[in-house]
Amino acid sequence: MWYVIQTTTGKEEELAGIVRRNVSHALYGSCFSMKRELLKRLGGRWTAVTETMFPSYVFLETEQPERLFYELKRLPEYTRLLGDNEGCFIPIEKEEENFLNILRRNEKETCVAGLTTLDLDEDGGIRKADGPLQFFLDKIVKLNLRKRFAVVELKVAGKEWRAMMGIRLRKDVERG
Description:
There is one protein chain. By secondary structure, the chain is an alpha+beta fold. It contains four helices and eleven strands. It has a single domain, classed as Alpha-Beta Plaits (2-Layer Sandwich), CATH 3.30.70.940. The longest helix has 11 residues, at 12-22. The N and C termini lie far apart (41 Å).
């Protein structure tokens, strides 16, 4: 099952690395922070940049959350394993796990949701999508073609999140 460690914003990758170096691999399957690739207009050209997708969250796969909790408590950088108010650790829901698996493409540590290439119809609607966003077209709440991003609404760790995902248009790819 997957769990979420909450840490200081900006320290996600650092904490994931500390866990990988200091916690027994027998206690967990993978540990990662989720990033996304976006296009930004710099100097008149589209440039790919990578940003944190879920600030302050590190994801951990384990079948032994209690033992893992005690290992994590030894780490000075650890903040908390998300759970209920009664001290029980709550795994993320299956839908959330599926979302993350699609985005991370079976990568264990470096998890970056890549760009999705969109083919548009004459009215600017999405005809075809190639990339991680293709599985979440029904969850898009905002599409900004000019700035090359889509916002999807989903639930992660029991909270409603709006996640920005990078897009590029077919014409961007054809131009090089």
